[in-house]
């Protein structure tokens, strides 16, 4: 399903074929936690924002409106009106970060809903059933996200359990994909490599899960408090032990700088809430660094956020207007910011793909980082 | 500038020519208080929502970002990227409803800003200067909006002062329209008829302001607490004393029913916050009455808000999806609701125009009201 089109150093340029169309990698997935992009961006809008993949959160959709509801409505694609690929996470990360009191057992995790406090159990089989109901293109394996920092012995036990869970996930998804009333019988599974910043645990785990011949492999449990240098080191050391002929996904990362560094180390897929969250706080990404649109110096500035930007916002609206909307707390201000930022990320990925194809990635990355360093902030 | 194309009973079908294009009447103006439609609807979106005229609020824009700022940026049209007609209110209504302590004097009104409490003075000349800075297509005269109910003697004094203010408005706007740095030298002025529910004061006032040969005439101070029957009575009694060859505008009204009744009495222009405000509260307008999208019965409903509706929302999204967005407090839910509701109003006005042209307005109105009465709520 994955075709490696070009390499430039360790940077990969690939094509990932799915039942919902082909994903050109490296790719940034646009986060729509509850089946909606934050900032009032619609799936119709995504069409003109170079979005290739939408990412939704299994835990949130399980709690509300419920994956059974979405299944009855024909699955996530039909529900949110998006016919391109969708990746769903496993729910694991939210269970470990959002939910109330929880107990981790061999069978799975017992926890309380963050919405109404009701008790929920989720294990590998439950996560697969929920994701099968959602009928996403790519399901993520249910794993434990260990705390950072974690003792070596805790980490080793956790990673071992994550491996056992992964095998159960694969088995359950294979079964679900053969059921008659399954909406997407070609749902794919990505496994998740864990191990924190323990190089040897990461590598050992990468080797073990690579043997399972999954559709793709993610690095989880990074960008959780370790330094950027540690993160890059772990990516660099672990990546050679994941199959080159499968896509790799660095979960929840990150800044444009993080992405540029990680692409260089062979990552295909990314996702992060930064472009939407920072947009809502008035921060716009540009090729000359981040801009704070709330800054008084933009009060009379009739230029777009970034000259030459082809996004639907920069083609029409000025810094002064967006600043006014943000100051007046008009929702439209948030929408315009999020739109620009997601486009910026998606467009950067397109540039990255071009640079790898043309074997000029190192130079591209250097110029891009120099631009960011001019930082308007 | 106004051309009466057809009459059906007292219902008027007109065309109002402005420097920003022709307005087909009857028309519903879409309210964008702070130079933005509530609910994250952009001026680009308005293009596919049959919007003819955008209405912005002078008081709000004077306070933030400031009319001088907007003038320096080339006026409201350029600021919010909308090249069709814009009507600005006079600021009077907000001064009388939003602002803190105020004193009404012959020269104008002293009051405190609702944003930062600073003292502001606004009289006829100030209102005209602000609206000239905003460079709207149509400026509204600065008037007093008397409280309801008001003593007869208070009302008479207030209306007399409003007439004196109107004359000062006309004089000042004429002067401003000749200044070299005025952005819209063809800015038009609508006078406002007042008098509460006192029939004779209304009529006397209508006669006096009609002599001033303004570009249009509004009925103000209605829908402020009187019954619908009283409102319709006042419209019916007053309208014959306003010039037939000028457009009439019923300010701040109202429900689809109110509009149908008022068109029948000769009204050309309407504006109201209902479609946007009700949309944000989950209420959708349809030809079968209002629907509450939060209602549990829509949880699994894959139909659009209204079958056959041509709005950008009904062409794509389901009741179930919109209900989910509203429940999850996703901004996108508000945007989809507001979009549908504004389209519903704009589309109804188009139907109204067709019905008047074809001399079947009474029948159209009857059928429409019957449909609303099926009310899903």
UniProtKB/TrEMBL annotation, chains A, B:
Keyword annotations: Glycosyltransferase, Metal-binding, Queuosine biosynthesis, Transferase, tRNA processing, Zinc
GO molecular function, one term: tRNA-guanosine(34) queuine transglycosylase activity
GO biological process: tRNA queuosine(34) biosynthetic process
Catalyzed reactions: 7-aminomethyl-7-carbaguanine + guanosine(34) in tRNA = 7-aminomethyl-7-carbaguanosine(34) in tRNA + guanine
Domain of life: Bacteria
Residue numbers spanned by region RNA binding: 252-258, 276-280
Cofactor comment text: Binds 1 zinc ion per subunit.
Record-listed Zn(2+) binding positions: 309, 311, 314, 340
GO cellular component: cytosol
Domain tRNA-guanine(15) transglycosylase-like stretches: 10-370
Cofactors (names): Zn(2+)
Principal EC category: transferase
EC number: 2.4.2.29
Pathway(s) it belongs to: tRNA modification; tRNA-queuosine biosynthesis
HAMAP family referenced in this protein's UniProt entry, alphabetically: Q_tRNA_Tgt
Oligomer status and interactors: Homodimer. Within each dimer, one monomer is responsible for RNA recognition and catalysis, while the other monomer binds to the replacement base PreQ1.
Function per UniProt: Catalyzes the base-exchange of a guanine (G) residue with the queuine precursor 7-aminomethyl-7-deazaguanine (PreQ1) at position 34 (anticodon wobble position) in tRNAs with GU(N) anticodons (tRNA-Asp, -Asn, -His and -Tyr). Catalysis occurs through a double-displacement mechanism. The nucleophile active site attacks the C1' of nucleotide 34 to detach the guanine base from the RNA, forming a covalent enzyme-RNA intermediate. The proton acceptor active site deprotonates the incoming PreQ1, allowing a nucleophilic attack on the C1' of the ribose to form the product.
Protein name per its UniProtKB record: Queuine tRNA-ribosyltransferase
Source species: Anaerocolumna jejuensis DSM 15929
